[in-house]
Inverse folding.
């Protein structure tokens, strides 16, 4: 009788694990289908980084990317989000270090910042601005047309406000962090309400369960 009960318990546990895994698999499939239907980030971009080097999105294939659109004259939101972005990268690296993982086991993650204000955010301006953030944060700018094309691929909203007496102006824009997988396609996105810890956990989960989006 004890053996029967034990066997039944084992079978029930296995069934529960199977159902949980199947539920998670179906959730991932639905998420993939939703993102593919949105067609976010499936195009390329041709910009210039803050060192003056020409960059295309295809340059980052094989790496995980956390991407944020903003501008260097942003008074508070952009600095806060870029600090958050850097902290997420550090949390992921610290977690890998605590686990005693071998070098190279954490998929490389590249923090990216694309300006929505190319008129003021030159290569030199980006280089000065990014000194205050994560050392691997890469800033991208370009012509107004190239920057608009990059933002359009992610449905980024950006609208410059009226200039003040000194000619300064703010740019109203989307506040979202985008996660791109090694295939260059969007895997997830995070609004301002998400904390560094929540984003890091989500990114790590995507890394651990990654499967390329079906084309």
């Amino acid at each position: 009788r004890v053996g029967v009960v034990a066997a039944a318990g084992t079978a029930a546990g296995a069934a529960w694990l199977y159902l949980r895994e199947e539920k998670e698999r179906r959730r991932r499939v639905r998420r993939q289908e939703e993102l593919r239907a949105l067609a976010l980030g499936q195009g390329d971009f041709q910009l210039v980084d803050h060192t003056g080097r020409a960059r295309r999105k295809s340059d980052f294939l094989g790496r995980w990317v956390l991407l944020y659109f903003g501008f260097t004259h942003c008074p508070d939101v952009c600095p806060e989000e870029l600090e958050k972005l850097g902290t997420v990268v550090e949390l992921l690296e610290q977690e890998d270090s605590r686990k005693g993982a071998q070098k190279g086991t954490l998929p490389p993650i590249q923090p990216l910042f694309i300006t929505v204000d190319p008129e003021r955010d030159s290569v030199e301006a980006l280089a000065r601005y990014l000194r205050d953030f994560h050392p691997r944060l890469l800033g991208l700018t370009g012509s107004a047309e190239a920057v608009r094309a990059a933002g359009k691929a992610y449905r980024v909203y950006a609208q410059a406000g009226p200039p003040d007496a000194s000619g300064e102006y703010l740019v109203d824009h989307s506040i979202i962090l985008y996660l791109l997988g090694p295939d260059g396609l969007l895997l997830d996105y995070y609004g301002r309400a998400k904390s560094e810890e929540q984003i890091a956990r989500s990114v790590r989960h995507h890394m651990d369960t990654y499967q390329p989006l079906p084309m």
In short: The radius of gyration is 21 Å. Strands lie at 46-49, 54-56, 64-70, 109-115, 138-141, 158-160, 171-173, 177-180, 186-190. The chain has a mean pLDDT of 85. The chain has two domains: 1-38, 41-209.
